[in-house]
Amino acid sequence: MTGFGKAVGEYQKKTITADIKSLNGKTSDIRVKLPNNYRSKEILIRNLAMDKAKRGKLDLNITVSSDEEGEYGLNQSLFKKYFQELKELQADLTYDSGDLFSAILRIPNVVNVEEREIDEDEWLAVCQTLDQALEELMEFRRKEGRAMEKDLTSNIQIILDRLEEIAPYESKRIEKLKARLQKNLQEFLGSDNVDQNRFEQEALFYIEKLDINEEKVRLAQHCKYFVEVVQSPNSAVGKKLSFISQEIGREINTLGSKAQDSNIQQLVVQMKESLEQIKEQLANVV
Predict the structure, then answer these.
(1) Which of 155, 176, 212, 263 could covalently link to 274 via disulfide, CB atoms 3.0 to 4.6 Å apart?
(2) Structural domain of 93
(3) How far is CA 182 from CA 30, 141, 172, 206, in A?
(4) Which has more confidence, 274 or 105?
(5) Are residues 125 and 216 in the same domain?
């Protein structure tokens, strides 16, 4: 599910900023950007993020700014080396390159940042800031989830409504099947050569294979269970809903293959349309 969270924390004279962005994804994929002296904590930070976010493509960024003296220093020897070489190059090319000082200061390693290993108090401040950002992300997701819940249950209700509409066509469907079998048999063998008793037995055997009552019952049960899972308090239900939707699709496909009736097949097509919308939404569910 998509979402964004950001939090700012303070530790001594440092400002710690954590922001995390979530995009849709079926698996867990997290990219982390940290200050160099936080690298030893990267695995712990990843675990903290995934414990709450569960699933999705995540971009996590933690930055630290400081007003403390001594945090930054100028590498004077490297600065002089760059300055001398650039001045010589400028003279050889007879080209005015502008403000060399500003350009050199932007070169990596010219300005050093003192990397101190973080202590427990600073680590606690980082965890609290990250937790606030994650909570904001989860609240963003919860809002999206409430809207998604309405859409999912609405599509399930459409499937159930189409399922109810099958009933009026079922009795006519059986009579049509028998009439069609009788007509085809008479055309092929002639009416005088048809054993009616044998025909009734074979027709009954054939029609039993096309009975859809079991599929209707299972489909209704799957839909009911789907709604129960959607409305459950569990935070991570995406995979379970995906499995249930596969079962719903299996029953709908069987209904279509057994239908032998254009009206029922039209209703099946409408069920499939709603199921496809459900599957698209489930790709975004944690």
Answers:
(1) 155
(2) 72-112
(3) 65, 60, 15, 13
(4) 274
(5) no
200 and 101, same domain (yes or no): no
Q: Which uninterrupted H or E stretch holds 234? A: none
Q: How far is it, in rounded angstroms, from Cα 119 to Cα 13?
A: 14
Same domain? For 216 and 146 the reply is: yes
Listed in sequence order, the residues at least 6 apart from 27 whose beta carbon sits closer than 8 Å to its beta carbon are 55
Q: How many domains does the chain have?
A: 3
| CATH number, domain containing residue 205 | 1.20.120
Burial class, 270, CB count within 10 angstroms (exposed 0-12 / middle 13-18 / buried 19+) = middle
Give the pLDDT confidence of 160-201 residue by residue, as tens digits: 999 999 988 877 776 777 666 666 666 665 556 555 665 566
CA–CA separation, 172 vs 272, rounded Å? 23
Task: List CB contacts of 223: < 8 A, sequence separation 6 or more.
Answer: 156, 159, 160, 163, 248
76 and 62 in a common domain: no
Q: What is the tens place of the pLDDT at every residue in 26-55?
A: 677 899 998 878 888 999 999 999 888 877
User: Domain check: are 80 and 151 in the same one?
Assistant: no
pTM beyond 0.70: no
Q: Say yes or no: 148 and 267 in one domain.
A: yes
Strands of 67-99, DSSP E: 72-74
Across the range 78-98, mean pLDDT stands at: 78
The token duo for 223 is 């839909």
Same domain, yes or no: 277 and 194: yes
Distance between CA 77 and CA 178 in Å, rounded?
A: 98
Whether the Cβ atoms of residue 259 and residue 212 lie closer than 8 Å to each other: yes
Mean pLDDT of 200-226: 80
